[in-house]
Amino acid sequence: MPTHLNILRRHVWALSVVALAAASPVLGQSANELAALRYYIQQNNQPAIEAEIRRLRSAFPDWQPPADLNALNTSADPGAETDRIYQLIAAGDVEGAQRALDAARTTHTDWTPPADMLALLDTATAQRQFDAAVSTDPARAVQIARTTPALTQCDRINNVWRLAEAQERAGEPDQARGAYEAILTACPRYQDIVGTLEKADSVTTPDQLAQMFATATARFPANAADLAGLKDRLDAGRGAGTATAAPPRSAPSTPPSASAPARAPQQVRPAAPQGGIAAPASQWDRLPPSGDGRITAMRAATAAGDWGRCIALTPEPRSLDLLNERGWCSLNLKRPMEALASFSAVAKGRVPAEVARDARYGMAMSYLNMNMSNDAAKISAATNFTRQQRVEVEHEILVQRGVEAYRVKDYSRAIGYLDAAEGINGLNRGLGVLRAYAYLNSGDRSKALQLFTQMHSQMAGDDTRRGMAASRTD
User: Fold this and answer.
1) What is the reported pLDDT for 150?
2) Are 74 and 105 within 8 A, CB to CB?
3) How far apart are CA 230 and CA 196, in angstroms?
4) pLDDT value at position 451?
5) Which range among 39-53, 89-103, 326-340, 354-368 shows the weakest confidence by mean pLDDT?
6) Cα atoms in the 13 Å half-sphere on the side-chain side of 228
7) Facing residues of 153 across strands?
8) Where are the domains of the chain?
9) Taking the domain 396-472, which CATH number applies?
10) Helix (H) and strand (E) counts for the chain?
11) For residues 295 and 322, what is the distance between their CA atoms, to the nearest angstrom?
12) What are the start-end ranges of the H helices in 221-372?
């Protein structure tokens, strides 16, 4: 497994069309073959340049390098702009990302944006349009989802729920029920199934609801007792007997483990007057598990922490194992949406179990890099992580939830999450101070003073000094 460190490096993407004019037709059709050579030229690494030229001559006998190798770099590399575009997409600044993309295209006329960048930007744009339409115009929201199937995958299940609720409000209960039924047959996480059954209660007859429970029980037989209890409770709400306790919910410190085997997010097809939504076709759907000969050089780059070189060497992945490692390079370059696209493709491919698990770990870490802790929790619940992977994922989930609870002034929940995070993998000083202030703001001055004093004795600072003073003030 590659070293998962967050180190910022430049990312080399583009190839020069000018230089390719001197190349053979075969190499010209595979322009990205020159990416590594261009990178070595930029680094002035003469031994690597000579070795790469020998490799290209062997692979493309008709090709000859230009007399002036610098001609391969006549089109400026838009690496910095590329990084910024990914960051803007991850931050949700769709307009800013589009402006930056347009500017990069204008400045670097020979540059072709990566396909996954365009796909991520299209999805982010469609998500914004969907958010604007779903509450007031369900038909428009369905149309948007149909043209952008990524919006209705299980890892964006909230979109399907919101659409179904909007259809119910619009007097289309059959369409809403169809969306819920699609989730029951497609999505892998048990907790999502429970939430869907609860939501479906208002748009189903008793027989329809019974059939939906039968579907869920067939998929999650180990949860049959919990499902039966939930059904009794919903039936009781309709006046059909005595309610039993709802199925237990997971404590914040341990996201629930799903009964279903780990699976990549599946496509949900919410019913609509015009028909179902087609499943998306990924550019990597047909990649073999292995066989891309560049993986050795790529692993050497990752071992050295040279994430930019890792990306430059593999502009068009030709195997899933290489795509998985490329995902970690993208994540280490602070491009989590790009990484997520890579990991998701690997996780649903035909790869060994340990590769699929590593890819799902990458998916969780990508979500956490975007502060999407709920999405990371869904991945965690459905995956049999190694102990270290689970510690890292669940600790960060709890930390993010604790920080968010503090932000909205829910101090008791913030304390609960941060206490649980400490029990898993400790708290750094900043989080320790935050928790102490949560106690102070909740009215427990004694506990706050104890925590501030303890941290001050370990490493005195203005933050703990101010905290102690505030804790002593009436």
Assistant:
1) 82
2) no
3) 12
4) 92
5) 39-53
6) 5
7) 267
8) 17-112, 153-237, 396-472
9) 1.25.40.10
10) 24, 0
11) 6
12) 224-237, 295-303, 307-313, 320-332, 336-347, 353-369
Q: What is the distance between the alpha carbons of residues 428 and 434, in angstroms, rounded to a whole number?
A: 10
- Confidence band (pLDDT; 50, 70, 90) for 18? very low
Residue with tokens 């996480």: 189
Q: Which two tokens stand for residue 397?
A: 């989930």
Here the tokens at position 165 are 């609720």
What count of residues does the chain have?
Answer: 474
Measured CA to CA in angstroms, residue 400 lies from 204, 378, 406, 428, 463 at distances of 37, 15, 10, 13, 21
Contacts of 474 (CB under 8 A, 6+ apart): none
Identify the CATH assignment for 153-237 out of 1.25.40, 2.40.160, 1.20.120, 1.10.3470.
1.25.40
Q: How confident is the model at residue 118 (pLDDT cuts 50, 70, 90)?
A: confident
Q: How many CB atoms lie within 10 A of CB 164?
A: 27
Q: Where are the alpha helices (DSSP H) in 203-319?
A: 206-219, 224-237, 295-303, 307-313
- How far is 439 from 445, CA to CA, in rounded Å? 7
- Alpha carbon distance 381, 378 (integer Å): 5
- Collapsed DSSP state (helix, strand, coil) of residue 20: helix
Do 153-237 and 396-472 show the same overall fold? yes
Cα(312)–Cα(307) distance, rounded to whole angstroms? 9
Q: What is the pLDDT of residues 268-316, one digit of tens each?
A: 433 433 333 223 335 677 889 999 889 888 888 888 888 888 888 887 8
* Cα Rg of the chain, angstroms: 26
Ordered alpha helix ranges (H), 170-319: 173-186, 190-200, 206-219, 224-237, 295-303, 307-313
The pTM (predicted TM-score) of the whole model is 0.47
Residue reference for tokens 């505030």: 470
Write the DSSP symbol of residue 418.
H
